[in-house]
Amino acid sequence: MAFVLVVVIDLFLLASSRLNAAIRAVALQGALLSALPLLLVTHEHELRHVLLLSAGAMAIKAGVIPWLMFRAIREETIRREVEPIVGYVPSMTLGGLGVVLSFALSRGLPLPVQAQNVYLVPAALSTVWTGLLLVLSRRKAITQVLGFLVLENGVFVIGLLLTGIMPVTVEAGVLLDLFAAVFVMGIVIFQMNREFAAMDGGKPPVEGD
Amino acid sequence: MLLFLVIAPLAAGALGFAFPDNRRRPIFLLVAALPHAAGVAAAWARPVAPALGGTLALDPLGKIAITTASALFLVCAMYAQGYLHRREDRDNRVLVGGLGVLLAAMTAVGLSQHLGLLWVTIEITTLSTAPLIYFNHNPRSLEAAWKYLLVCSLGIALALLGTFFLALSGAAPGGPRSLLLADLVQGGHLLSRPWVRTAFVFLLVGYGTKMGLAPLHGWKPDAYGEAPGILGALLSGAVTNFAFLAIARVFQVCRAAGEAAFAREALVAMGLLSMALAAVFLVGQRDLKRMLAYSSVEHMGILALGLGLGGTAAAGAFFHSLNNGLSKGVLFLAAGNIHRSYGSKVIDDVRGAARRLPVSGSLFLAGFLALAGTPPFSPFWSQFTILDGAFRAGRWAVAALFLLLLATVFVGMGATVLRAVQGDPAGAPERPGMGDTWYTAGPPLLLMGALLLLGVWLPAGLGELLHSAARLVAGGQP
Fold first, then answer.
1. B168: contact with A, CB 8 A cutoff
2. Is the pTM here over 0.90, yes or no?
3. Do B278 and B408 contact (CB within 8 A), yes or no?
4. What digits encode the pLDDT tens for the residues B51-79?
5. Structural domain tally of chain B?
6. Which residues lie across from A81 on neighbouring strands?
7. Disulfide check for B412: which of B149, B243, B283, B460 has CB 3.0–4.6 Å away?
8. Is A110 touching B (CB cutoff 8 A)?
9. Domain count for chain A
10. What interface predicted TM-score (ipTM) does this complex get?
């Protein structure tokens, strides 16, 4: 059920034209995925590790990052539209095609671990595909960051299969890196806003060497 | 000892970041570089024990990449003393701090025997360098920084997916169930082959983006074109080598799993494609730094090709990663001097560089000749070894194409370099007080000397190291 919802959010993102709605949808997707490890847990001794992971992921994916994004678009200079390069209907079509392909592809890759849910791999792959589409087909920096987040959400789902194999430190590192990446991206976006405001003032650019 | 190599530059970077005086802050680059270089020299003198339960260890691959990076960083740190003195208008706090983090992260990549840690540290090299591309604070460098950050982050996200797939391939009961390189290679026959194959595709695309292999090189011309010369040298001469090392590590796992043939073909194809695409953009290139960026795409292609051919060609590829690193250092640092003196980096403005800047101008030409494979410099030997490997493997078509592309690049790049270096500088734009000094022209001269030395005399220890690296990764003849 949760996986179906994840894919529905993917398609919604490809069709949505409002930035606010898109940010909320990505946050919702992140929250859903953060809760998943709790549903998939099979052994009691994993519980503490999984709880920590869930809490960390929830705080970053559904808390800090959306807050950063809303802050970034509060600046006057960003228009609250998505401004796609590829239109909404073609995006949707490509997204739908991706979902179909993901199901076909995961047929060819039998999971070596005991599958907790048959929809897990196709949902992850279609989310990765959606993320890539969003980054490549949207013009504005902030929407590209949204696409990057969706892609990371897809990777996170695959990571769930590995809770027994990977040490916690690696997952923590991955989460921290994601956070740092978005943070640096946020700074660059902030600089862009300032730079383009300054350009209107006619300040000559520095010749870099 | 291994931890020291990571922590020392990190600490120096942090101290530099906190240090209040903009004029004296560049000293901290030397504070990061010198202990690191000393530590690397000590590691050459006697073997070093692994750290953190075998997660960090110095294998031949890591030794080559870390030594190259350490030498290049030391030279860049010396150059920065002169460069940042001339650019006191700019706040260098982020530059000094970021470079310290970069050296620590690169060392950690080289030492990492765990594919998860490898991924995390490669991501840190991206994050610590993106703000530095924006050093000049103009709209073009901002756009370049954004492109670099976004494209490399996307690539690295796909590499993470590939890493997860690789972990999954060994997740079956009885499989290695680990991401430690030694476990994966030892349990190679137990890995699920379809997953290894899928993982290799994602990892090649992911780390290939970071390495700048065509067609994933989109960020390179902008980033190298707009970054300060010192950063261009470190990015193209050191950081890309670590992405290559990551691909070589993954290739090791593929070979253990019995998927070497598939991986080899993919590497050879991407290598040749990178060389061809770079050749197209190098012919008629007017911007000196963008020219160097496409040259970097070409040489990354040569590395991938060498690794894919295996055998002696792989040893040649590891030697070439060292030679390319040193040559890129010469070229980017000399290009930075030229750029500063003319206030421009397009050949419509730059002419007669050898007369206005006798050392930097000549170095730019000599660096180009060395990199293009002119004897007696060392890149000639590494490229020759790769060609030899192609013939030995019976890949005649690959060898012919390799030679043809090298020749095309030589002619195309040569035309641009000669136009910049030769002629009369009178009438060309000039910024006063930007002539050659010890600090700005000496460091690239040192690197050029190293290229010449390695070309006429290869130390026995280095030769042995290159071959053991090739045996470790690519095995004997394919």
1. yes
2. yes
3. no
4. 888 899 999 999 999 999 999 999 999 99
5. 1
6. A18
7. B283
8. yes
9. 1
10. 0.88
